[in-house]
Specification:
By secondary structure, this protein is an alpha/beta fold. About 40% of the residues lie in helices and about 15% in strands. It has helices at about 15-20, 60-70, 100-110, 140-160, 170-180, 205-210, 230-240, 255-265, 275-285, 290-305, 315-325, and strands spanning about 30-40, 45, 55, 75-80, 115-120, 160-165, 190-195, 245-250, 270-275, 310-315. Helix 4 links the parallel strand 5 and strand 6. The N and C termini lie far apart (about 50 Å). The structure holds ligand PBG.
Amino acid sequence: MSFPQTRLRRLRRTPALRGLVRETDLRAGHLVAPLFVAAGVSGREPIATMPGVERLSIGEAVLEAGELQARGVPAVILFGIPDAKDEQGSGAWDDEGVVQLAIRAIKAAHPDLLVIGDVCLCEYTDHGHCGALGADGDVDNDASLALLARTAISQARAGADVVAPSDMMDGRVGAIRAELDAEGLGDVPIMAYSAKFASAFYGPFRDAAGSAPAFGDRRSYQMDPANGDEAVREALLDVQEGADMVLVKPALAYGDLIHRVKDATRLPVAAYNVSGEYAMVKAAALAGLLDERTAVLEILTSLRRAGADIIITYHAKEAAAWLAE
Ligand code: PBG
């Protein structure tokens, strides 16, 4: 008995057929745009390593947020660049700090736009590490928890819709959840950067935020890129501690883990398409080496296919415009 030749190409013949059987959708509604809000900037300041991304004054951040919302992007995640840094990173939990002021201003102007606060100390510490230093010069895990929780509370009080700890200390999700609940902020969800790897792809971000570590590196708290099972363990622990959403970062070389973390947690999963991933595409596009629009939409679609519900990406504004065409 012979079978007819399988013809998968039958369903690829026309745009209508391809549309009918397309498995993955990508909408502006899946995207989150990172914004850098800088205390010392009036207007906008270009970031050399991230063409098309700028450090913004609070006023410009409000305008940018409005443009994003008009394009259908439902959320922004804020990173602060303070005027002054100190050993503890006290600017992170200053109720009048740059992120807190930006949250209030954006929420006042655009109440329906979701504002996510990135909770970390590295933009605020003079040593550039993500927590407080112990006597041995390494980051002191437990001493950092209280500072991170204070930061999350301060952002939530300013009106953040979601807090997103990106520091990778053990136990910070539980510490933040307990503190939010104790302060009457039980409705504020936590998006945990559960599987955040010690990656070369954060280089441009550190340039943008001036947050490169002054000594050493982040490998005693961020994950080893070689480890997948551990990423799943991290995510499950964060779920136990009260995470409402979990995040995998970076994204492009970590599609397997977006998939595994989604399978293991069944929570909303975010993928962070990080600065170095953005810079690679931009540099190639600017050099005429690839078609930016097609490449970006392919990348973002692949993250959705891997299992990401939410994609944090510096391409958000342009991608939203392309998706509306
Ligand atoms: C803060 C933080 C970083 C990023 C997001 N939150 C920097 C880092 O861990 O060094 C990187 C984002 C990006 O590269 O786009 N800890």
